[in-house]
Amino acid sequence: MIVADFEPVSLNDYPGKVSAVVFISGCNLLCRFCYNRELVLKKLVKDKTEDFFEYLILNKIKYVAITGGEPLFHPHILDFFEKLKKLGVSIKLDTNGFSYAKFKKALEKSLLNYVAMDVKGFSDEDIRFITRKNYRFRDFLKSYELLKSYDIPFELRITMWKDFDKEDLLHFLSFVDRNDKIILQKPIFDKPFLDKRFASFVRNVDFERNIKIFQECFSNVVVRNFV
To answer: E strand or H helix at 217, and its extent?
Structure first.
């Protein structure tokens, strides 16, 4: 299975474009605040790949945002990218930055046109806690530095799952560019978290305070999912 589901039209997922959105099943993380349980745990059993390509070709879709789960976790994702490129499709990839080898190949083959990379935390401890996997900050940084070496527009997405200290951001800022596009978003409370007990913790986060701190440290901060 490649395509677990797809959204025919989106005005929000590919910056500046009207796109289709593809959801890829499976993930290498178990983020506590994740609300895509069916995708992460591979509980969507119907393969909609043929339906998607039929829709894509019939409607001459030229922009596709690919998300998950973690798209790069899928063993055949590079073939999927290449098939889209042969159809003249511009690809926006959502990734957590922890699948370096496939990410590198996708960039080397010029398969990606826009990248949204998640920042799960600014320390090894935070990353391990929130993802429940043994990744480190340097693993994210390796993918970030690779991405910066290519002339591809990108954004760094941060879900505000805790109250971040300014010291956290200054540490982060010592590795990244203060002019990078930072996307701040609240967790989605409409669906159960992967860790159901975590919702009560996140509801106590001071989102307004977090936004202010990020705006003090970065020059290009965009806030989403904030009502």
So the answer is: helix 207-217
Task: Tell me whether the omega of the peptide bond preceding residue 97 falls within 30 degrees of 0, making it cis.
Answer: no
Overall domain count for the chain: 1
| Whole-prediction pTM | 0.96
With a cut of 60, say whether residue 227 has pLDDT above it: no
Q: Which letter does DSSP use for residue 94 in this model?
A: E
**What gap in Å lies between CA 65 and CA 129, rounded to an integer?**
28
CA dist 113 and 30 (Å) reads 27
DSSP labels, 15-74: TTS-EEEEEE---S---TT---HHHHTT------HHHHHHHHHHTT--EEEEESS-GGGS
**Structural domain of 31:** 3-224
Task: Report the helix count and the strand count for the chain, using DSSP H and E.
Answer: 9, 8
φ and ψ of 16, to 5 deg: 80, 5
| Residue 160 belongs to domain with CATH number | 3.20.20.70
